[in-house]
């Protein structure tokens, strides 16, 4: 301590410092998510209710697990995890569902709405749609034998949506590795997070219209036999019917959450261009190789990247609202 300083002045400085500390800690609390116990007192059965709703949906249709994980991703990347993607078109909302990357592609809305109405029945107006979506993505992952993690809670729902922002912030299958790295970096996710999260392409499906150019272009960085196999169920000529034909993103084990996706990439059997760029002589090759050899590392990294993704710009405290129906604002 500086004894040349007057006692008064010293006290005043200490007082100011204390205030500053207090202020900075409260702003932190206001913008951060809470632990997974957030609803323990206000809705103790929330998490078990969501879980049974999601496991029922996934046992009805296994692909739904993939669709729900993707829905959470497409929510979080556009103005944060605020359930904006769930809002329908209306007088005041231009739905993100009609953004290029979502239209005729994003699915699982009814499953989230069903889980929400089950939760509303036991504790009306308490649990946000954004939290339900985050928990659903975790439960869906677990339902297809993927890793588990504690979902941080306390997100609130937006009262707006932005289709133009969705078109800007959601990745395109034609993106280069550099573009993907930059896009994820802009959401505070590293290249390693990006590769781990892309590993969810170990389940789910893509439409012919999105991978046709890759499987018919002789200059593609693609295994020739794999291209021929995929051509069988994806006609060279575009038509609405042909474009909608589906193929598994992971041809080997399309329904289980494993490391096969990364093995495929090493064999040049990535279905989308944006899959193969992760292993094409660039900076992420080593990560792909690592995950292909160590499912354990992939699972752990996937779980922590999902937690980071779920942390993107949440609405907390008194911001936004708790929607009663996920597809419309209150
Ligand atoms: C790295 C950039 C990414 C690009 C360019 C991309 C692109 C795509 C495309 C084009 C599809 C097929 C959609 C369709 O045909 O309708 C798809 C499906 C899917 N994506 Fe991604 N994705 C990326 C990252 C991610 C991430 C980070 C996740 C989750 C954390 C994810 C999860 C999924 C899942 C699970 C499916 C299958 C959905 C279903 O079957 O309904 N993707 N992705
Ligand atoms: C939102 O749109 C979906 C799909 O068209 C529809 O099933 C649902 O009922 C709509 N929500 C409301 C509240 O009208």
Task: Give a quick rundown of the structure.
The protein is mostly helical.
Question: How would the global form be characterised?
Answer: globular
| Helix-strand sequence | HHHHHHHHEHHHEHHHH
Most strands sheet: 2 strands, antiparallel
**Do you know the CATH topology of the largest domain?**
Peroxidase, domain 2
- The CATH class assignment of the largest domain is Mainly Alpha
Counting structural domains, the number is: 2
Identify low-pLDDT runs. Answer: 16-30
Strand and helix layout:
Elements: H1 7-31, H2 46-60, H3 63-76, H4 109-122, H5 129-143, H6 163-169, H7 177-185, H8 191-198, E1 205-207, H9 208-216, H10 224-231, H11 240-243, E2 246-248, H12 260-266, H13 273-276, H14 285-293, H15 295-310
Antiparallel strand pairs: 1-2
Helix pairs in contact: 2-4, 2-5, 3-5, 4-5, 8-15, 9-10, 12-14, 14-15
Residues 88, 325, 327-328 line the site of 2-acetamido-2-deoxy-beta-D-glucopyranose.
